[in-house]
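Hi R.,

Here's the chain you asked about this morning:
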Amino acid sequence: MILISRRFLYFYAKKLITFVFIMSVMKLLTKNIFYLLIIFTLTTCKNKLNINAPYKEIPSIYAVLNPQETIQIIRINKVFLGEGDANVMAKVADSVNYNAGDLLVTLERFVNGTKTIAAQNNNQTVTFHDSIITTNSGAFSTTQRVYVASDKLFNSGEYHLTVKNVKTNATFTAKSLAVDTIHADISTTVNGPYYPAPLCLNYPYCPGFYIDYSASNTGKLSFSYKIRDGKINQVKMRLHFYDSLFDNTKIYRYIDYPFNNQLSKNASQGNSNPNFNNRLQLDFRSAELFTAFGVELAKMGLSNSITGRRVFKIEYFIYSSTQEYADYLDYTTPSLSLAQQKPLYSNFDNSAALGIFTFRSTKAFSKETDNVFENDFARNPNTCSYKFFEYNSPSWGLPGCQ
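And here is the predicted structure, written out as tokens:
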């Protein structure tokens, strides 16, 4: 009996201890139920966080118009948002392009605050139509929808651009002053007449009539131009040449030599002769020029299965743009500082669209090349392997690399 009673007491002692433990835990749980509910809520929610805000239509618009050109092109893309890989989505045309007919793109012109004709054909409003172009491969789809107008614009007045989504009624507006081209008084290191040069009675010896950037000019070369109302100027030099084929036909080609952007604020001032004021000058050297030309020729993959090649003209292009365009280039230039993040540029009203609407103008002039310069192309180490003729004759004017 005593043995049974001890076992009985031992059994119920264990039960009692277990019961007390459970009650203690329950009391603790009851006391801290509020905190436990918070923990439970946080630990049982989904571990996928959706950071996408409600969709808002924000297009990307690149509209840099040029009154000197016969065709005006505006590029408009959708700023897409999705859960997939953005690099993959950017390659899909439907992700970046609006559908045909979705957008109404118009341009109006104001002078002294009054609406007036927008184009030289007396149209009050310039309306753009959409078109498809194929671009070079890159981060985005090569199929791009652009918006095109063939109306001849004025180089003065304030233009207002309106982009309206006719399906959603979302409207995006911006305005910009048109800019005039630069003055025509462009001077080069050769103070001769513009292309084509007049008949030279002492041909081929006509110093000053033609452009000579040959290696014999070991010093600094330069040319300058007088600016008007543009704030930033982009300049490139274009060398024209042609391939002479065995059937006596010609294939005309060119290569470019771009210069750094020039700011109008750095133009010359304070000279007693007004012709030397408001001028920008670009300096370069013959060695730099021939090295660059050699690189560009190598990129073209030219065949030497021809009679030969001849340099015949140099052309200069000067693009003058507004302050907005200068700001845009500054925003889009890669940062060299530790802070890589840059704000997205917009000159649209209320920053409703990303991108830019502005104007730039173009001035182009050209001059024939000097005989000495042509000879140098035939012999210079950077260009001699491309069968350039010397000035005199194809029959004995192919010296090649010596």
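One quick note: Residues 222 and 283 are 4 Å apart (CA to CA).

Cheers,
M.
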